[in-house]
Amino acid sequence: MDWNRVEGNWKEFQGKVKEKWGKLTDDDLTAINGKRDQLEGRLQQRYGFAKDQARKDIDTWFSALK
User: Would you call 19 helix, strand, or coil by DSSP?
Assistant: First the structure.
């Protein structure tokens, strides 16, 4: 699976994203709209992650979906 599937089916993945990162708001999820770079940015804002940490956290989550 590649990220295009997440982006193309964002509404289906929003619940899984919210389970993993509960600090993200519904407005955050709407703004992210399946864009990986937007998700990285929101994780940095809400959790204080460095960019590399946000990327690693997303990679780990994404790998578990496969």
Answer: helix
